[in-house]
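Entry
Fold in token form

___
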Amino acid sequence: MTFFALIIRNLWSKKARSLGLAFAVAIAVMAVVTLDVTSSGLEQSAAAIISVGKADFTVAQKGTSDTLSSTIDRQELTQLRQTSGVHQVVGVLVETEHLDADNPVFIEIGIEPTDLAGFGVNVVRGTAYSATAAHQVMLGWRAAANLDLHVGDQFRANGTSNTVVGIYSTGNSFGDAGAMFPLPALQGYNRVPGIVTLAFVKVVPGTPVAGVASRIDYAQPELTTIQTASQFGRADRNLLYLRAAVDGSTVLAILIGAVIIGNTMLLSLFERTREFGLLRAVGWTRRRTVSLLLCESLLLALLGAMTGVVLSFAVAEALAQLPQLKGILHPNFTEGAFWRALFTALAMTVIGALYPTTRAALLSPLKALSYE
């Protein structure tokens, strides 16, 4: 019988225990991977906001609970425009509204019509709204398709009926699934006169972007500049908490899993003491005996990791359909999530196996054969 066949036979002889151990690993891996992909998905959705405008970087209020809670007033916008190296600043107000069950978190963007071109908005049908229009709106082409609305139709939002004057495209799925209003109108609907959520900054051609961003960070410490998705935590504390939760859950899963695996392996060692004594008596080395016990656990860990990843797909998709997260959460299964799953499974197995394998290595063949 080959070494691998012996491992399979030993695991199959204790099917219930083997499946229980693999299931415990699977649950731990599922929890870790689900947190990872949901965190990555929410970060991706948040990062999509800053990529709507065709800017060099985005400015938001520092340390808000979430991106949409950011507030920048007229004075701060004026100071941004006066910063050396800044070519253009586009202030936008971003709000959300529950339209219906299919659109529980519909994105509404308030922006001046003169800033549309600089924001990367291309009107594909109809025309842009006027600066002073109170009941005019443009729909992203995705939103228009989802809502089955066309130029000239009425779009109800913010408790008012608004005429669809144009259909636009930004080349960004997030922006194209929302609606754009004249900035003063959306500010009035939400009772935030003079306030914008984000400022999209373009620098003077040839000017180092990092230098301009640094000057803004220094001159206006209440604001923060964002150039990449990884920097979004500067403005959104929830993303920082999510990242910390992912790392914390990984460590916790490894520790709890290690205890479960260690107890299971120790119980198996006690039950098979005579078997290990016999193997040592017929010439097996300590290393080979330990390898047998460790490989059995590693095989179950890999099985549990694969099962956990599959379960995480189902759980993440179910979370994405919750009314509170629909349209916002898009699970993002990155390569890092799969590596985290493998690391979690292997780490809990290796740590959990330390004590049982040490005892197996120190077994005396004579005492093991006399063990009752």
In short: Residues 15-50 form the longest helix (36 residues).
